[in-house]
Amino acid sequence: MDFKDYYKTLGLARGATQDEIKSAYRKMARKYHPDVNKDAGAEGTFKEAGEAYEVLKDPEKRAAYDQLGANYQAGQNFNAPPDWDDGFEFSGGGYTQADQESFSDFFETLFGRAQTRGSAQQAGQTFHASGQDHHARITIDLKDAYEGATRTLSLHAPQVDADGHMHVRERSIRVKIPKGVTEGQHIRLAGQGTPGIGQGRAGDLYLEISFQEGSPYSVNVRDVYFDLPIAPWEAALGGKVKAPTPSGSVELKVPANARTGQKLRLKGRGIPGSPAGDLYAVLQIVVPPAKTDGDKELYQKMAREMDFNPRAAMGG
Q1: Is 66 left (phi over 0), alpha (psi -120 to 50) or beta?
Q2: Which of 31, 67, 261, 275 is packed most tightly, with the most Cβ within 10 A?
Q3: Does the predicted TM-score (pTM) go above 0.90?
Q4: Cβ pair 91, 194 in contact under 8 A
Q5: What share of the chain is helix, strand, coil (3-state, %, to 5)?
């Protein structure tokens, strides 16, 4: 998937004001609208301009896109980092009245998920009106889900000044991560959204939980999985091995003649809850390299004396 430079699409510099973005889009829309321009490629240009405007007209989408796009150029191969929008506050969701079916896979990858965050209640026209709810995504360690934690988080919210330039405001909040929280769960912080009008109550802030990638563990709701390397003799003979887990080291009994991919279940040792999840050690047999003459001799002896053909089931 190629990276799309939405500023380049509209012929703008990255520091363009919101009014300049609106003006550039309107000019392109008039010039390339399919009802007006019958040239080949006009409709495609019109759709690309609409997609660019959908992102850049929205200060929230624009702020997140600006942070991401600083390291990419148009046409460059692109894979969105899983935490690219962590900490950005969104007060609405996903698409507006634009034709979402005309948007590219690039847009869908970045902003399609935003529509599932839910849309905020619009402020009324009376003097007293409730503020909008905000939504943001935060990444935590799996250990925090096991034990609970209190974390200080930095959140980013875009603001447009009187001259139409966009700025990102940062704020820090202390959040209590409850024990047993699961991926995708939302933590509600009352009154941390947009302030109300008059005597209207402030909106709330909803933090969507995701787990840090790159750890040795994978999670399915409350069940936790990890690969457990074992030596060939441990697999063949069985025995007890120590294994690290998010809640500390445990001793596991490997059955004799174990095989790669076999799962050892530790009931109730997954993410806490009612009921708690299970922890699964997925066995991975690791073959030691033949580094020395003694190692090679040992393997040669096994080849001579053991009646074993790993390809027997294939007729080999």
Answers
A1: alpha
A2: 67
A3: no
A4: yes
A5: 30, 25, 45
Q: Which tens digits make up the pLDDT trace of 57-96? A: 888 788 888 877 666 777 777 777 666 677 676 665 444 4
Give the Cα separation of 136 and 133 in Å (integer).
10
Is 97's pLDDT higher than 80? no
Query: Which residues pair with residue 282 across a beta bridge?
Result: 227, 263
Q: How far apart are CA 159 and CA 25, in angstroms?
A: 21
Residues 6+ apart with CB under 8 A from 310: none
Q: Name, in order, each residue with C-beta under 8 angstroms of 9's C-beta and a sequence gap of 6 or more.
A: 48, 49, 51, 52
Q: Which residues pair with 225 in a beta bridge?
A: 218, 280
CA neighbor of 217 nearest in space, from 124, 285, 145:
145
Across the chain, how many H-helices and E-strands are there? 8, 11
Contact (Cβ atoms closer than 8 angstroms) between residue 264 and residue 258: no
pLDDT tens digit sequence for 206-256: 899 999 887 899 999 999 999 999 999 999 999 999 998 888 899 999 999
Neighbours of 201 (CB within 10 A): 14
**Consecutive H or E run containing 297:** helix 293-305
Looking at residue 24, what DSSP letter applies?
Answer: H
CA angle 305, 309, 313 (to 5 degrees): 155
The single residue listed with the structure tokens 């076999």 is 262
Residue 226 neighbours by CB distance under 10 Å: 16
Query: 3-state class of 285 per DSSP?
Result: strand
Q: Are 251 and 240 in contact (CB under 8 A)?
A: yes
Which residues face 218 on adjacent strands? 225
Ramachandran region, residue 112 (left: φ > 0; alpha: ψ -120 to 50; beta: rest): alpha
Distance from the first to the final alpha carbon of the chain: 42
The radius of gyration computed from the CA coordinates of the chain, to the nearest angstrom, equals 27
Residue 231: phi and psi, rounded to 5, are: -80, 160
* Contact present, 140 and 168 (Cβ < 8 Å): no
